[in-house]
């Protein structure tokens, strides 16, 4: 397998792993520990448990796929700035989860809020979106340093 292909596996795998990891964190922290919300709030308790279960299954599948792609990519330290590619992709994936989930579920579909019923619910939703944007920006900064150095070495 070529070095370029392995780098693509690391790049895509780290993004999917980050997406799944931050989805799992969302489910563990907000759904289970804090019990602030479920995926679908306007249903019975059993419906909320089922919706959370489907959500956990989806993020677990993302974790497995991301891990498999990273395994195909091999050791990231064997590639020029491979560890930065991995960390950057992971943060971009996690930030993308927070941003996309926040926009779709909190604002467009309005199936739940980060902390429903709280007088500051909008603030929690906006902070969740901001955390996604911040993670994406940090991830891109880390990857950009890695990508620009790789291109300079390839030239």
TrEMBL record:
The keyword Transmembrane applies. The chain crosses the membrane at residues 12-34, 54-73, 85-109, 121-142. Keywords: Membrane, Transmembrane, Transmembrane helix. Pfam families: DUF2243. This is DUF2243 domain-containing protein. It comes from Robertmurraya mangrovi.
